[in-house]
Amino acid sequence: MERLRLVTSGTYALEVATPDEAGALFTSTTPWTIAVKNGAAASVLAATPATGKASGITYVADHAVLAALDTYTCTWTGMKSTAAKEWQSLIELCGGYLFEVADMRAFDTAFASGSTYPEAKMRAARTAAEQRLEKACRVAFVPRARRVVLAGNGSDTLCLPDNAVRSVTSLTVDGTAFTADELAALDVREWGRLTRGDAYDFESGAVVEVFYKHGLDYPDAPVVQAAMLLAREYLVRSALSSRATVEATDVGFFRVSVAGPDRPTGIPEVDAVITDFGRRRPRVA
Length: 285
Prior knowledge:
Blueprint: E1 2-5, E2 11-17, E3 29-37, E4 43-49, E5 51-53, E6 56-62, E7 70-80, E8 83-94, H1 101-107, H2 119-137, E9 144-151, E10 157-159, E11 165-173, E12 176-177, H3 180-185, E13 187-188, E14 193-195, E15 207-214, H4 221-235, E16 246-249, E17 252-255, H5 268-279
Parallel strand pairs: 1-8
Antiparallel strand pairs: 2-6, 3-4, 3-7, 5-6, 7-8, 9-15, 10-14, 11-12, 11-15, 13-14, 16-17
């Protein structure tokens, strides 16, 4: 999944690789198309001509097409000989990143080479680091959006799976959408508690779909440093076996720090940040 920062002007450069059934990349031929749906499966862009390139297809989308924080599904089509082929890609539009690729290259000069560490590889490592930190800390450090399906419990309260909840965009109960007034009456707490403001409960077993925004305004400096340390771990794999817990050198044996119940990543500085900024956050129903 590609994460893109929400912009209010300009364009988004979208791209998908074009592998065949065996996974080998090939250059598809015209006609190239792209269709985009938001997280509610509503079309926001349909069958617009895209552009072919070596082993992929690209499209430059106006900012108005991807206008809100959400996860979008892109369906691409092209040709291989006389056969039509289809590929999919996911895009999460978010409120920002924990660090810029240029910051990572400056953080560690080992990543200065764009040929050894291309932009796409750096972005993938950043996304992996962001997702790992967010899950461990139980909070997003920049604004994001999520759609969840919950079961009604017979009370007027539900608990969303995120901290730092900012607002509820839409809510449906068994397919019936809340009105603007009903949404405005919701009591939404930062720690994820959602309470109806009318005289009704969420009927037991009812299917409740909630689309909401969550996340902090921006990350603190230690979080940024931790994200880059974790991304570096994904970019440069250790020569040690993944099962190793000790390393023998000319000066003796050294115990290797590994992930565990009290060490989510095994990287001391990253785990300290998780403890300080995330794992102590309360979960209150």
